[in-house]
Amino acid sequence: MISLMNTGNSAQNKIFLDRGDITRLDCDCIVNAANNSLLGGGGVDGAIHRAAGKKLLEECRTLHGCATGEAKITGGYNLKAKYVIHTVGPIYSGAASDAKMLADCYRNSLNLAKQYGIRSIAFPAISTGVYGYPAEQAAGIAVRTIHQWFDANADYGMEVILSCFNDVTYNLYKILLKDEMK
Ligand code: AR6
């Protein structure tokens, strides 16, 4: 895992970059790139449900879905992570609203995490798989939104892990975050 110190006025918040499977990470919370039903699917959603076990789906059934850009929280069950935050990214269409909804996913997930006292949270590259969001644009939105949240929550001390399942995502984040590398 590469550690990246956040610069600017929010010294206690940090970004880390990890190349691998988000379900194996040992952090307080992992974020799921879910769909509106919250009842499972392919990609990272399928991997998280498989690793967490059937009780995750049982709890998800009680949530009655989730709107695009919003976030809901459950337990982590068989995962190392105590919590899973489920957020629903936009299906890429090219409309201006795509970027807003993708930023909402990161912001709302971080706000919910803070409400639960979470200090370390791992994000997959939301919407960049099945939902077709161009990886470079999505990485830029993720990094910008996390930095905005750090600035707005300067003394909280959140560790954000950007989980990269492929080299394209990993290299994009590495370029975007190069100024923060120690
Ligand atoms: N760990 C980390 N990242 C992963 C993993 C993993 N185990 N598996 C895949 N990724 P996607 P979306 C990466 O398709 O585009 C589901 O069916 C993947 O390489 O999982 O938001 C849901 O139910 C990509 O970079 O999510 C929805 O219907 C990123 O995770 C739909 O897919 C997101 O890819 C959501 O599509």
Structural key phrases:
binds ligand AR6; 20% strand; 182 residues; 5 helices; alpha/beta; seven-stranded mixed beta sheet
Would you write up a description of this structure?
This protein is of the alpha/beta class. It is built from five helices and seven strands; from the N terminus they run βββααββαβαβα. Strands 1-2-7-6-3-5-4 form a seven-stranded mixed sheet, with helices on both faces. The longest helix is centred in the middle third of the chain and has 20 residues, at 96-115. The radius of gyration is 15 Å and the shape is globular. The relative contact order is 0.23. The structure holds ligand AR6.
Q: TL;DR?
A:
This protein has 5 helices and 7 strands. It is an alpha/beta fold. Helix 3 packs across helix 4 (135-152) and helix 4 (135-152) crosses helix 5 (167-176).
Cofactors, ions, other ligands: ligand AR6
Category from helices, strands and their pairing: alpha/beta
| Element order: H for helix, E for strand | EEEHHEEHEHEH
What percentage of amino acids are in beta strands? 15-25%
| Unreliable stretches | 6-10
Shape: globular
- The percentage helix is 25-40%
Summarize model confidence as the mean pLDDT: 94
Radius of gyration (CA) equals: 15 Å
> Separation of termini?
13 Å
Largest sheet: 7 strands, mixed
What is the topology?
Blueprint lengths: L1 E4 L8 E6 L9 E6 L8 H10 L1 H8 L9 E5 L7 E6 L7 H20 L4 E4 L11 H18 L6 E6 L2 H10 L6
Helix pairs in contact: 3-4, 4-5
Ligand AR6 binds next to strand 3 and helix 1.
